[in-house]
Amino acid sequence: MILRDDCQIMDDLDELASLRGEFRLREGEIYLDGNSLGPVSEASSRRVNEVIDNEWAKGLVRSWNSAGWMAEPTRLGDKLAPLIGAEPGEVLVADTLTFLLAKLIGGALELRKDRHVVITDVANFHSDLYIVEAMAVRAGRAVSVKAIDRDTLDEALNDDVALVMLTHVDFRTGEMLDMAGITQKVHDAGALMLWDLAHSTGAVPVDVTGCDVDFAAGCGYKYLNGGPGAPAYLYVRRRWQGTLENPLPGWLGHARPFDFDLRYEPAEGMQAFVTSSPSMIALAALNGALDVFERVTMDQVRAKSLALTDLFIALVEDRLPGVFELVTPREHAKRASQVGLRHPEGYGIVQALIERGVIGDFRAPDICRFGFTPLYVRFVDVYDAVERLVEVMGSGMYREARFTVRNRVT
Ligand SMILES: *Cc1c(COP(=O)(O)O)cnc(C)c1O
Asked: Which residues partner with 342 through β-bridges?
């Protein structure tokens, strides 16, 4: 039997405990949805105010030069690179994730012109499936998308496969895939590998260099805490730079944008993947959020994340035996930083929990999803969240009509 005092001791020993003070969190509320939208940090708030009050207000248009605005997408890319094991000059912060996937898919298809198939996961995030389908249709040759059960990848790989696009962490179940092993198999088949790191970046250690990944992209507003609609990032391994083309060219990806040249000539390095003007206020928020990550290692984050999810699973199974089906793998190597609990009345359960100050979310058709973000979630929060879940289930309040009305965002 795990007691609240045991959790308090774990917090007292937690070397990341002091980071919680960096975030603006509401007293009494337990935030288990940092996998959907990370909270605001003091550093983000400071950086945004700096950009507005100094660079924009005082510098005006001069700040494109004097404040280095033009270089910010690549500078922030370099700042983010260690979180995914990339080298400097291999990451760019820009756009949002679906746009960046379009750029990478469109570019990659041109590198394997003699091949006609893109493989992805039928359980992938819907936006990924829409955009891969759209880019395949627009590839100047017949390209078909095979959305497979990812466990059948071995059978699906052959010499007609141009690209494999998988999401490293399943957004519903929190299952983490074997990046090294899968990338190797894809390369053995002569295909290219694109990883979506939306639910990985800032949550689990990633080593794109060690895993020999060709391309990757990830989200700025989830575990990175970059703010609602934050810019995303893309990774292009050095060996593909200069070869991979940006299928959505714009003036700021040109080698000399202020020549106003009518012929497009891509800039060198990651700058070639810029299309339009960087969104400086949004970048400032992400910049501040990345400051916080400079105070931790991803190994520290990982150790606490596993301890938090282990604790949550143990408490739920102890206090509510047989009530939920655990959809997240128990095995550490396959578990990322979120836990999914299946229940036919999951929507109402999550809504009732939110009313009681435990913020999780719901993923159709029946998964209650809880994200555990080690920068600010405490062990006592996990304990208290499960206590409130016990109350919600025991009272049956989740069945009340007001909890069954679907919001626009679930
Ligand atoms: C969150 C998420 C997206 C959506 O990203 P946008 O920045 O809104 O385009 C796409 N794919 C996956 C796997 C995600 O988790």
From this structure: 325, 367
CB 361 less than 6 A from any atom of ligand 1: no
Q: Which of 272, 293, 314 is the last residue of a domain?
A: 293
Regarding whether 156 and 106 lie in a shared domain, the answer is: yes
**Could you tell me if 92 and 77 are in contact, meaning their C-beta atoms sit under 8 angstroms apart?**
yes
Q: Which domain holds residue 398?
A: 4-16+297-403
369 plus 283 within the same structural domain: no
153-192 residue pLDDT tens = 999 999 999 999 999 999 999 999 999 999 999 999 999 9
Centre of ligand 1 from the C-alpha of residue 125, in Å: 7
> Residue 303 C-alpha to ligand 1 middle, in angstroms?
25
**Per-residue pLDDT tens over the stretch 18-59:** 999 999 999 999 999 999 999 999 999 999 999 999 999 999
Residue whose CA is closest, atom 15 of ligand 1? 198
Residues 265 and 311 occupy one common structural domain: no
**CA 9 to ligand 1 center in whole angstroms:** 37
Neighbours of 357 (CB within 10 A): 15
20 belongs to the catalytic site: no
- Two structure tokens written together for 404: 């069954």
- 98-122 pLDDT per residue, tens: 999 999 999 999 999 999 999 999 9
Please give the angle made by the CA atoms of 200, 241 and 75, to the nearest 5 degrees: 60
End residue of a domain, out of 251, 274, 293: 293
